[in-house]
Specification:
Length: 318
């Protein structure tokens, strides 16, 4: 699926002199999102790109190119000229695919260059209120009392691996149920078809507020800004879990360092724009700004962890 929109057209007068001296950008910048419109990645990219365009002094054209579990859109960026004018805005899906696929059309660790991690969040663990579990320790106790297994639904590999990690570390039996979308997983949690779901904060927030869903914990060390009253996994004594949600800007390998630095500056300013602070928090995004080099190192460590979890869970690369 493709969807192309010009989300920002900044007047040339807004461009900074330093940007103009590099010769980049010399035409509109295309940002490809490897997923359909309306999801968290799409929302965040469209929220911050207008400000980034203003800093760059050009237009940013956002194109949704979903399919292939994010690989179709990502490959389009990998195969594009490495001049900074075609970029990827994505969560970690293209990287996690490296753990779970026997064959990849590209290697994200060598064919992509992280520009900046624009924002982080935390995947939420939700439960059906009738299931009666309100925190992680209650969940572990309940699961040990029901060795036949407790079901959890997910629509992404990262969410599934979080569930497998909890299962492995806590020594409990959790039964994974895959879904095509986070919305469908939520629906089945609400109606009791599955007891739990690892899902996005913005997806589940309305149901938590209405009392139709219980938020058991936010993955990782920090709380999710969309549901700040819900303790994180680490606060509940479950340390060492990735947050599972982060979004960044990536470029084809070989993109000139000068262009990368200008893009990093533009998207960092956009992510930390005070005018967007409240809206980002409502949606579960926390500005981050981690530079590309550090981001790459962290990605390598997380992929190693996910590889160990997948192997322990018996998940074979396909």
């Amino acid at each position: 699926m493709k969807r192309r929109d010009i989300v920002a057209a900044a007047a040339a007068l807004l461009a900074r002199p330093a940007l103009a001296q590099t010769g980049f950008p010399n035409r509109p910048v295309r940002v490809i999102i490897p997923a359909g419109p309306g999801g968290g990645t799409d929302i965040l990219a469209r929220l911050i790109s207008p400000k980034a365009a203003a800093v760059l002094g050009t237009s940013i054209v956002i194109e949704n190119r979903g399919g292939g579990e994010s690989l179709i859109g990502t490959e389009a960026v990998v195969r594009s000229p490495a001049d900074g004018h075609v970029l990827l805005f994505s969560d970690t899906s293209p990287y996690i695919a490296k753990v779970l696929r026997a064959r990849m059309p590209f290697d994200p660790l060598t064919d992509l260059v992280p520009v900046i991690r624009a924002a982080v969040g935390a995947i939420m663990l939700y439960g059906n209120p009738r299931f009666g579990v309100r925190d992680l320790n209650q969940l572990v106790a309940r699961a040990k009392a029901e060795p036949s297994g407790i079901s959890f639904g997910t629509s992404s590999t990262g969410s599934r691996l979080l569930g497998e990690m909890l299962k492995m570390r806590a020594g409990i039996n959790l039964l994974h149920v895959p879904y095509r979308s986070g919305g469908l997983a939520l629906t089945d949690t609400l109606n009791g078809t599955v007891q739990l779901t690892f899902n996005g904060a913005s997806n589940g927030k309305p149901y938590v507020q209405s009392g139709e869903l219980l938020a058991i914990g936010a993955a990782g060390a920090a709380r999710n800004p969309a549901l700040p009253e819900v303790p994180s996994f680490e606060e509940q004594g479950f340390r060492g879990y990735p947050a599972g949600s982060e979004w960044g800007l990536f470029a084809p390998a070989g993109t000139p360092p000068e262009a990368l630095e200008l893009l990093r500056t533009a998207y960092r300013e956009a992510a930390f724009d005070p005018a967007l602070t409240n809206r980002m928090a409502e949606l579960g995004f926390r500005p981050d700004g981690t530079s590309g080099a550090v981001y790459q190192e962290e990605m390598v460590r997380v992929l190693r962890l996910w590889g160990e979890v997948a192997a322990a869970a018996g998940i074979q690369p396909q």
